[in-house]
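hiii so my PI (J.) wants the whole complex modelled not just the main chain, which honestly fair. so below is everything: two entries, each one labled with what it is. i double checked the lines twice but i was tired so who knows lol
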Amino acid sequence: MAQKKVSRTIKDINRKIKEGKIVVVTADEMADIVKRKGPRKAAREVDVVTTGTFSPMCSSGAFINFGHTKPAIKASHVWLNSVPAYAGIAAVDLFIGATEPAEDDPLNRVHPGQFKYGGGHVIHDLVAGKKVNLTATSYGTDCYPNREIKKKVTLADLPYALLLNPRNAYQNYNCAINLSKVTKYTYMGVLKPNAGNANYATSGQLSPLFNDPYYLTLGLGTKIFLGGAKGYIIGPGTQHNAYAKRGKNGVPMEPAGTLMVKGNLKEMDPKWVAGVSMLGYGCSLAVGLGIPIPILNEEMARFTGISDEEIFTRIIDYGNDYPQGEATSLGQVSYAELKSGMIRFNGQDVPSVPLSSYVRALEIAHILKGWIEKGEFLLTEPQEMLPTVDRT
Amino acid sequence: MYSKMLSLRFPKTVVNEPITVNLVKKFDLSFNILKATIYPRKEGLMVLELSGHRKSFQRGVRYLKSLGVKVESIGQDIKRDEDKCFQCGACTAVCPTGALYIERPEMAVIFDREKCSACELCVSACPARAMEVKFDRSLVY
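here's the output for the full assembly
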């Protein structure tokens, strides 16, 4: 007897969450389930698959309102712990970007620079409840006469603090090697000469957008795990590119989709928004992000069941090609190979090195799973989908 | 063959003692001195790699301690801040001794202090800056 096709809605899923009957598995568990039982049976059994990623994500920052002062100021330049913030918005609003180095940082004058403190660290310190020195200067106006203020602020003092990351959760990323004869210090980490190591990012089968390669279930309004709290997808991220080259399974084989996300900084945990320093490159912010993927049908079970050996990325030379604006693929490599610790490149064994934390990614998937099972987290309907392409 | 990087700090009373010669003659050990200094107040610091049979090594270290020499493994001088480390694995690219490695399939990043040669390459390569040097690096190099 033919079995009925699986079809469920986000409403059905939320009803099951409220009834305490929801079945949630993490993306790596789902890969195993689909392998053993096939996508149809998996779709019947599983309602939601949770994903996670924890990695430096440079396109991150925070919108902060620091409250009106007496006398009032229209801040035109602002520094947080001597890291410049963008103040070209309303009187006491600012945006602090993750990669902004402290103003007195020696940068790369002695190469490779250390980049010990920057915008990502400011955000981390705020979330950790530390006091941050705020300095603002102004040219003075009739309504805002104050020319300069200095004060110590904590996250609790700030009337408003929103993490707003223009591009996070890259769906796939390059595997970086260095074919030049000198060590290169890149945003992909330290790359030893003559293909001494191959660095990669993304958490592979656990990574959010690898589990919904055509963005069929998520978009503006999708509730997610962000920085230890609940956040939202608010649209495609900068450089979102659905037209990237895809494999037969629909999964992009090069950098493709991205997300713009937001969340209340005050609810976050410093464990999941951590300032980082990339030697010779700059400062950044490591962001923890996880998305629940609703298993609406068999197709979503198939997508979420895709495992590391079926996900590929391209190898790019960051020694010569990338700095010249060339992104010529030197070959494909699977995440299973990358995670094994050694890849084969031009007949040579090259140690592979992750920049994303798989341990933390898995922890996020489990936290999200726990929230949903306990009924603390309901799924939301996306109000506008991300740009995508037709399924092949 | 057992080999370890040690820092020896000795009080001025033992500065005149030919301790390294004794390590070779009495305990059949070989050594490679990376740094040896006698400070103005006559206390000394020596950083050396000491190699030999494990038992001879232990006897040699016991001899040093009996003279009042403070013996510390250099591996214990590089520390990982477990709160800061978020287990990415970037450090494994630069670690020359395999003291920092990834345990599979968990993908947990392990720091084996016994294997650490205190080269400090991980200190600045760590994005989270979780690796700390616990003594003044200018003492050694």
